[in-house]
Amino acid sequence: MTTPILAPMRFTPDEIADVVGIYVSNPEYCRAAGEYDPEHIEPGRVEADLREEARTEGCHVLLARDGEGRTVGLVCLLDRHPKDGYPWIGLLMVSGSQRRRGVGRLLVRAVEERYLGQGRDGLRLAVLENNPSASAFWSSLGWQEIDRRIDVQFERPCVVMHKELTRPRITSVSRD
User: Fold this and answer.
1) What is the C-alpha separation between 82 and 98, in angstroms, rounded?
2) In what order do the strands lie in the sheet with 157-164?
3) 54: how many CB neighbours lie within 10 A of its CB?
4) What Cα–Cα distance (Å) separates residue 76 from each residue in 16, 40, 90, 141?
5) 39-81 pLDDT, tens per residue?
6) Is the entire prediction scored with pTM above 0.70?
7) Facing residues of 61 across strands?
8) Residues forming a β-bridge with 157
9) Is the Cβ–Cβ distance between 135 and 158 less than 8 Å?
10) Where would I find the H helices in 5-100?
11) CA-closest candidate to residue 155, choices 23, 26, 33
12) Are 129 and 159 in contact (CB under 8 A)?
């Protein structure tokens, strides 16, 4: 699979429907987060929540599209956390039909490249403690736990993870 294209969400009715579909296809996350009832996700509420996120200074709500233009994921980013100055991934969710196909890994790499291109040397995120599969995913990509704390908005226990951003080193091959 080629790397999905990340583009700002425009909040069209079709995009809202796509995002609701992503949430519906991830009922485990919805149950763990407790923000949405996975059996009844209201499009208006999803739209309002994402619009509020997008209005926050330095926040980006991005849709990930495959080569055919289909929405395969949702990414929310914060360019500079007010307390530590690092960029943060607030949410990275892949459509349930695309899970276990490498889409999440490609999206993470695209986000890392985005911030590397801005000269940033690290990136952070928080994973809900009650979502061990998410912790395992991030750990498999080289992210390391640096703290445990309660999230401010919903008072949920979280694992804070960090990854140093570096370009792969190119080693020269000597010819003898």
Assistant:
1) 33
2) 5-8, 59-65, 71-78, 88-94, 122-128, 157-164, 144-150
3) 15
4) 15, 22, 5, 18
5) 899 999 999 999 999 999 999 999 999 999 999 999 999 999 9
6) yes
7) 76
8) 150
9) no
10) 13-24, 27-33, 43-55
11) 33
12) yes
Q: How far apart are CA 110 and CA 77, in angstroms?
A: 12
Tell me the two tokens of residue 50: 């994402």
Count of CA atoms in the C-beta half-sphere (13 A) of 132: 0
Residue with tokens 């370009």: 167
Phi, psi of 29 (to 5 degrees): -65, -45
DSSP 8-state code for residue 36: S
Sign of the C-alpha dihedral computed for residues 145, 141, 57 and 65 taken in this order: negative
Amino acid at 153: Q
Q: Both tokens of residue 109?
A: 């790499």
CB atoms within 10 A of CB 119: 7
pLDDT tens-digit series, residues 118-139: 999 999 999 999 998 899 999 9
Structural contact between residues 87 and 80, judged by C-beta atoms closer than 8 angstroms: yes
Query: 13 with 69: CB under 8 angstroms?
Result: no
3-class SS at 165? coil
| Alpha-carbon separation of residue 104 from 12, 93, 98 (angstroms) | 24, 8, 9
